Amino acid sequence: xxxxxxxxxxxxxxxxxxxxxxxxxxxxxxxxxxxxxxxxxxxxxxxxxxxxxxxxxxxxxxxxxxxxxxxxxxxxxxxxxxxxxxxxxxxxxxxxxxxxxxxxxxxxxxxxxxxxxxxxxxxxxxxxxxxxxxxxxxxxxxxxxxxxxxxxxxxxxxxxxxxxxxxxxxxxxxxxxxxxxxxxxxxxxxxxxxxxxxxxxxxxxxxxxxxxxxxxxxxxxxxxxxxxxxxxxxxxxxxxxxxxxxxxxxxxxxxxxxxxxxxxxxxxxxxxxxxxxxxxxxxxxxxxxxxxxxxxxxxxxxxxxxxxxxxxxxxxxxxxxxxxxxxxxxxxxxxxxxxxxxxxxxxxxxxxxxxxxxxxxxxxxxxxxxxxxxxxxxxxxxxxxxxxxxxxxxxxxxxxxxxxxxxxxxxxxxxxxxxxxxxxxxxxxxxxxxxxxx
Length: 438
Hints:
Blueprint: H1 3-11, H2 16-23, H3 31-39, H4 42-52, H5 57-74, H6 88-111, H7 135-159, H8 163-178, H9 186-193, H10 198-221, H11 227-242, H12 246-253, H13 271-280, H14 294-306, H15 309-314, H16 318-330, H17 338-342, H18 349-363, H19 372-389, H20 399-410, H21 417-430
Helix pairs in contact: 1-10, 2-3, 4-5, 4-7, 5-6, 7-8, 7-10, 7-12, 8-10, 9-10, 11-13, 12-13, 18-19, 19-21, 20-21
């Protein structure tokens, strides 16, 4: 098992199977474990009976309570659970289906009339699920799992006195996804929570997304046995929440209604979007390249241009950065920021090459604090400045590919006038046949 997977289990030691083993013990001290375990599946069992088996809600409630009292409490059903035989929820649902089927047959036999409508259910006996959870059960369970993840994340932020991170995540991710609301701007969040600049908001958002993903994996890990199963389960949950049938299930469950964070599924959201938006929650912080809003990119771009260039580059090559610092000092070059470097009339080529490597390195890191677009801009701008100011070609990119990248950036609304002018010089230089070869 990876170190990450082990640390997740240390943070959330009460796995579902641990609870199963404790709940299966008849000792009274372990009864709280039984209550916690059942609370995770009550809603899913009821959704399965109401939406899959078409049993009236009140009757489904009675059947679930009878199942718990008869099978789990009196007959110690949980002692038969075995993690080597598959998911616990499959075991639980099969037992529930068998119990309901027996109840239907018993009540119809007692009434001595097969047509007696004692249950609001199909006339045929309720079929077992053959070891696989139903769509309704899975959708309700998946929604509850996301709710559990959000609760844990909120509690963790509160415990660390970092509710600002939670509020940034809520304003930028939860509310737009789950409530179909407009996300709060970086500038508004700066004013509301006392951040020094939009880049701090951006950093808090990245931290929150990583935290959500970590806690999601920990929560899913409570129901699985290793990291590979966690990845598979998350893929399955995403598919479940993306299905058309999940929408009606989640509306019925109102799975987020009781959260202290007050996150609720938007009642007015179009049906076709609601479950897709919920499925997006399974991808937050997953390492996939996210789509940044122009306002976000503009804020990060402005901050990065003003960042101390040599301090940032020291993380890539401390030795070379130290030499360049000495070089700049000896020649009286005031290159404090990336903007100073890019707009200097005669910047050191070595520093441009290191900046190009810095941009390339961050563009290849899915979890980089820098958006991919900003990292590639640093890469392209370094090449353009070396080409136009120093008459040096520091890339093996062909003219057509370099021109394509420059033209793409010139179309972006978050690029300012100075950078547009610089990139325009690069296009002009490429059109000249005298450009220096690599």
